[in-house]
């Protein structure tokens, strides 16, 4: 079977074309969606505006790159891992630090005073005791 013979040809192509042309978006809509350039502005001005916008973006990116923090600062802020530690050991170091912190917190929770001791120390009043 011929694939071209399966294509449906409209009986009145001019009416179909007119219907499609009637539904197409207007020029201002196409300009707003950046599909076409504004026909009211001269092409030379459009080109200069585009180049200016491109340079503005380049300058902004260059400024951001020039003022980005150093790797040492990023390590201090815990954004980057310390490059002095081998990657295979970094995970173990992280787990160890986490376990140490967890142990410290558990110890602090176990050693915290009970409500009666807080009343004796004058931190809580009798009314504030949990029931």
Automatic annotation (TrEMBL):
Principal location: nucleus
Biological processes per GO annotation: positive regulation of transcription by RNA polymerase II
Keyword Nucleus attributed: yes
Location relative to the cell: Nucleus
Ranges annotated as spanning the membrane: none
Gene Ontology terms, MF aspect: transcription coactivator activity
Keywords of the record: Nucleus, Repeat
Spans of repeat RPEL: 15-40, 59-84, 103-128
InterPro entries referenced in this protein's UniProt entry, alphabetically: Myocardin-like (IPR043451), RPEL_repeat (IPR004018)
One GO CC annotation: nucleus
Endpoints of the signal sequence: none
Keyword Nucleus part of the UniProt annotation: yes
Protein name, as recorded: RPEL repeat protein
Organism of this sequence: Mucor plumbeus
Lineage of producing organism: Eukaryota, Fungi, Fungi incertae sedis, Mucoromycota, Mucoromycotina
């Amino acid at each position: 079977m011929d694939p071209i013979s399966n294509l449906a040809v409209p009986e009145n192509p001019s009416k179909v074309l007119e219907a499609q042309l009637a539904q197409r978006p207007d020029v201002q809509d196409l300009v707003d969606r950046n599909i076409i350039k504004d026909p009211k502005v001269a092409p030379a001005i459009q080109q200069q505006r585009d180049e200016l916008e491109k340079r503005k973006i380049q300058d902004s990116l260059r400024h951001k790159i020039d003022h980005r923090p150093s790797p040492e600062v990023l390590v201090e802020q815990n954004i980057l891992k310390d490059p002095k530690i081998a990657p295979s050991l970094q995970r173990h170091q992280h787990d160890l630090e986490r376990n140490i912190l967890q142990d410290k917190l558990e110890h602090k929770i176990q050693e915290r005073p009970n409500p009666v001791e807080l009343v004796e120390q004058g931190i809580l009043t009798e009314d504030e005791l949990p029931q």
